[in-house]
Design brief:
Structural class: mainly alpha
Strand content: under 5%
Distance between the termini: 76 Å
Radius of gyration: 33 Å
Shape: elongated
Order of helices and strands: HHHHH
Number of domains: 2
């Protein structure tokens, strides 16, 4: 789809070349063209924002995933998922075993 700015420039040039108008009328035409261009630019921005917000509805209550609940409910916020806790326990055990192995090598 061609951009509207690509279509307005040749149209404006042809209009100004053909129309027998004076200085004041030329200034008015340029102001009107600038207003139309600004209105189209704003319309494109609004359409882009609306396009972004489509499908961004968050489901509430029991249908909400646990990951979202942990972010929003204060009672679940502080708790970490069990997978992360298990990984931390394994990491601490491995770190302790590594420290023991290092101390046994130096002794």
């Amino acid at each position: 789809m061609p951009h509207i700015s690509n279509l307005l420039a040749p149209f404006t040039a042809v209009l100004l070349a053909i129309a027998p108008i004076g200085n004041l009328a030329l200034a008015m035409v340029l102001v009107v063209v600038a207003d139309i261009a600004i209105a189209l630019f704003i319309a494109r921005l609004i359409a882009a924002r609306r396009k972004k917000t489509v499908g961004s509805v968050v489901v509430m209550d029991a249908e909400m995933p646990m990951e979202l609940r942990r972010r929003t409910e204060p009672g679940l916020r502080a708790r970490r998922p069990t997978g992360i806790v298990e990984m931390q326990v394994r990491w601490r055990q491995a770190a302790e075993a590594h420290r023991r192995a290092q101390t046994q090598k130096t002794v």
